């Protein structure tokens, strides 16, 4: 059994992932950029490292973090939205890649996004060529290529759909909005429980050198889904005025067929 897992980025997904790995008998190294969060990691049994990636350097003892790690989970999303200062995500991952190459780590799980498919129409599978339309999607594809094209590493890319779970659901941001297009487009979502379950299944089955789409296999329309979710929460439902062009449906990945993965939590 693999003994030590490294989780870079112990946030909304990374922290419960690390806790779940520990409950399954793994030893986990975890990182945070916050001194306050370091004490939280320690209390949960995670070996904590204060590490921050920038465009120019890695702050923190990345060599100690990577020491004896059998599988490295890279879970640091691009910070390219909003009005704040933008960053070069590819520069950060390039620096991390260089550090990995100096270590003994060979197995990589890189958390990406179905946003890399952009506005592709129709059913999307792992064989679909990414056509990102956002800066975030463009840089994610570049980082995917950097890691998976390194023949000395065993890299699995997991492209997650829209993330939902505790204190996180898109309907809260959509509530009360009007004249939204794309009401007939399918949702492509996945619950936190299954993000964790899929990552663990990759580790358990030694399923590397692959690209996986990770979305719940039910795809109600946005209009029907978000109207229902708003009603459940007692908030104003968003209103859709037109069908829109983007009818992308992301097909769930081959790991569910190969390794008999059963989804843990419905998006409903």
Q: If strands are numbered along the chain, what order do they take across the biggest sheet?
A: 3-2-1-6-7-9-13
Q: On the 0-100 scale, what is the average pLDDT?
A: 92
Beta content: 15-25%
The low-pLDDT segments are none
Q: Give a quick account of the main beta sheet: strands, pairing sense, barrel closure.
A: 7 strands, parallel
Note the quaternary state here.
single chain
- Total DSSP E strands: 15
Portion of residues within helices: 25-40%
Structural class of the secondary structure composition? alpha/beta
Helix tally?
Answer: 9
Distance between the ends:
35 Å
**Radius of gyration computed on alpha carbons:** 19 Å
Task: Report the principal-axis shape.
Answer: globular
Secondary-structure element string = EHEHEEEHEHEEHEEHEEHEHEEH
Report on the structure:
The protein has 268 residues and is of the alpha/beta class. The protein is built from nine helices and 15 strands. It has a seven-stranded parallel β-sheet with strand order 3-2-1-6-7-9-13, sandwiched between helices. β6 (71-74), α4 and β7 (107-113) form a beta-alpha-beta unit. α1 (14-23) packs across α7 and α4 (89-101) packs parallel to α5 (135-148). It starts with a strand and ends in a 10-residue tail after the last helix. The model has no long low-confidence stretch (mean pLDDT 92).
Which characteristics define this entry?
268 residues; alpha/beta; seven-stranded parallel sheet; two-stranded antiparallel sheet; 9 helices; 15 strands; 31% helix; 21% strand
């Amino acid at each position: 059994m693999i003994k030590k897992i490294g989780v870079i980025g112990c946030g909304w997904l990374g922290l419960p992932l690390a806790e779940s790995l520990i409950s399954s008998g793994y030893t986990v190294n975890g990182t945070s950029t916050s001194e306050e969060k370091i004490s939280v990691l320690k209390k949960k049994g995670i070996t904590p490292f204060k590490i921050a990636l920038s465009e120019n350097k890695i702050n923190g003892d990345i060599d100690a973090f990577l020491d004896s790690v059998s599988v490295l989970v890279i879970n640091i999303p691009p910070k390219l939205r909003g009005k704040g200062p933008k960053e070069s995500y590819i520069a950060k991952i390039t620096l991390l890649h260089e550090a990995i190459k100096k270590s003994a780590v060979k197995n990589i799980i890189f958390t990406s996004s179905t946003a890399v498919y952009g506005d592709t129409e129709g059913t999307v599978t792992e064989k679909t060529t990414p056509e990102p339309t956002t800066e975030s999607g463009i840089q994610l594809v570049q980082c995917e290529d950097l890691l998976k094209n390194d023949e000395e590493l065993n890299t699995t890319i997991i492209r997650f759909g829209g993330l939902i779970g505790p204190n996180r659901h898109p309907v809260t941001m959509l509530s009360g909005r009007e004249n939204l297009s794309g009401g007939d487009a399918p949702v492509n979502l996945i619950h936190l429980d299954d993000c964790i379950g899929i990552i663990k299944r990759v580790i358990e089955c030694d399923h590397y050198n692959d690209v996986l789409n990770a979305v719940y296999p039910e795809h109600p329309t946005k209009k029907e889904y978000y109207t229902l979710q708003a009603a459940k929460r007692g908030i104003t439902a968003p209103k859709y005025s037109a069908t829109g062009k983007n009818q992308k449906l992301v097909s769930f990945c081959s790991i569910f067929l190969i390794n008999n993965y059963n989804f843990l939590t419905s998006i409903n």
